[in-house]
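We close this part of the discussion by returning to an individual protein. Part of our work consisted of pairing the sequence of a single chain with a tokenised description of its backbone. No coordinates are needed to read the tokens, only the vocabulary itself. The amino acid sequence and the backbone structure tokens for this protein are reproduced below:
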Amino acid sequence: LQVFDDEGKDVTPRPLFHSDLTAAVPRQGKLLASSAYFGATGSGFLSSFSAHQTSGVNAGLDETVEPGSRQDTTLSLSDVQVKREEIEEELTKKDLERRVDIYLTETETIWILAMPPAVVSVESEDAGRVQERNRIYVDICKNRPGNDRFVEKMMQTINGAAKNKEVQCDKIIMEDKGMMVTSWDLYDSFNVSEIKPTPKAEGSRATTGKSSKSHTPKKHDQTTSVSSDRGSTTSTMIAESAILARIHEEKECHSEAILTSENFQQDLFFMERILMENIFQPKLAAYRQLPVLTDPGVTTDTSGTAAARKEAKHGEHDKEKKKEEQKEAFIEPSVLSDLKKTREEIVPPRLEWLWSYMCDLTNGHSVSSMAWSKANPDLLAVGYGAFHFKEQKKGLACCWSLKNPMWPERIFQCEHGVTALDFSTASPNLLAVGTYNGSVTIYNVRSCKDTALLDSSESSNKHTGPVWQLRWVEQDRGATGDGKKETLICISADGRITEWLIQKRLDCTDLMKIKRTESEKKKLPGGKERKNEVLISQQAAGMCFDFHPKDANFYLAGTEEGHIHKCSCSCSEQFLETYRGHKGPVYKVAWNPFSTDTFLSCSADWSIILWHQDSQTPMLTFTSIPAFVHDIMWSPKSTFVFAAVNESRVEIWDLSVSTLNPVTSCLAEPGAKFTSVLFAKTTDCLLAGDTQGEVSVFELHNLAAPPSDKV
């Protein structure tokens, strides 16, 4: 036999003893031996290897070792190679026919590795004795702690000599303290100490210099007097304090894990929705023009002053109603019906405050712009930023929902004040935001993260002045007939109207560069002409724009000079028309959605002007109070109604009723100024933002809306 390892090397064991080096070459296979051979060399050879000793084997016979036998196992483990000598004698026929007796005996067992077992079978004879010894050992281990019979020490080591040391200490001051406790406090304290005892309490008792006073508790008195030692604390008090501290820590960890879990956050979100719906149910019902179900026992107003004001108004209204009922009791029925009809016709329009979008985060930030979502009419985007250079600070863009008027759904932090924003129509999840430093940023409102999706900071053509207005505009693709494409249009104080391309990054092209226009030369009293002023810049700052509702190729642009230019997207070199009528910066222009030939404009010169696109002369001029008019907007339901906000109040104008005064108005809060206005899409409500970060929601009452086709 030959043995090879994994690498193919011959690792067959070699014999350590040879009887004769000149003998024949050893053969592998069966084990043959003669009586003479075993007699001469077998004893020494096998004894050196602890091999089998076999007797009574005649020469000329081969002994075959069956696989699996003990001899085969022993020989295979030792890998003994036995040399066989050639038999020179020739066997006769008589020798071959002779009967031979073969005796098989078992050799001694060879122990290469003997490891006594550590376990005993349960069915063995010694199982009971081993179990008894194990039980005794366990009892010894249990009784060992605190037992004087067991001493831990090292052998061949001299124990140190015991010494007595005395220390003089200060006088121990005893103090009596009392406290009020209840029976359940005592019960809970004792239960805690019994449930969770500390194993080291007994071994760590210190008895040096300790003294205490014993107190006998009274049965009917709940006052317990406790005497404590300042210098030392008993092990029982230490154990109780440790247990209470551990319980407190476990409660804190458990509470923190609950508060940070995702399921708990989702449950809080739903609970917040339910609470907001319960609190604002009457207001939301009035906003959606649904019947309000009032509960006489519940006050639904979020403000105490507003609730008191509302109760006072209701009280006065009830008194007036009772007086009217008393008067009507003495009037004939026919006359009474005519009076009721005239009263219904004379009831003036009014604005009723419902609620305000405001929180601690937006407090102190001025509302610069507002925009409704194109897909969700209940989602409102509000931009917060200052209009003046000295008042600049970090801006906000918040998305408010009707489901929670007290906290925004999304909050986007901006490094500079937000001056304009708008939702996309093709992709309602995209919100474009313009800031005071001239950058344009696009956010994804579906994402909970406040990181920007795209930013114009890397664009080489970005604006160098504040972006006063931006809007997503759908325009025809022209002769290709591929439908409409949506582009983002911006106007900035650097005198450029740009169209932004949304690809891997934001980049823009100029639609128009607003050039300054020369004013008409006026003659002095002596007949001389006034000299022209030297222009600092050849471009006029753009303030606002609005695209035509039917033809998106034309748009109006208001400038800081007070001029309004009519422009075309296909012509970027010159204006189609210029309307001169304002003496200050034009803050807003708006086409009439029904009468598409007319448009409104408001300015810092305290006026609102109604224009016709075919005439450069104003049709009507509206002035209510001497204050800046910051924003205007046409009603989406009527041709004649529009809203305007100046510094002190929000106004509703109805041209079918009066062209001199607004039909109704609402004053701003003390210290606040209105900055922007927005009509609700589906209801008769109005939103107004102010300089304190508050967006007030008003309901329009008794405003007769004529048919929209009446122009």
